[in-house]
Structures are given as structure tokens and as C-alpha cells.
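Example record used in the benchmark description.
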Amino acid sequence: MIDREIREPNDFAIITHFSIFKRNLAAEIKNNVHGQIQSADEMKV
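Model output (C-alpha cells):
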């Protein structure tokens, strides 16, 4: 049972993992954009 799970992970686990990955990636991009805007504002001052 466990061995089969490791060899053939079920679709739900893959989908869940992918959605978490996407959410983390989106948050990272948002933080990077925010950081770049902040840097630009600091340069103006």
C-alpha cells in the first residue's frame, strides 16, 4: 500500500502540491515587485 503510494502518487497530492507551489510563487513575485517599488521610492528621496 505505502510502496504503491510512493511509486504512483495520487492526483490529489499532485494537485495540492502544485497549488501550494503556485501560491508561494505568487507571493514571492508580489514581494519582489513590492521590494522593487520600495527601492525606486528610496532612490527618489
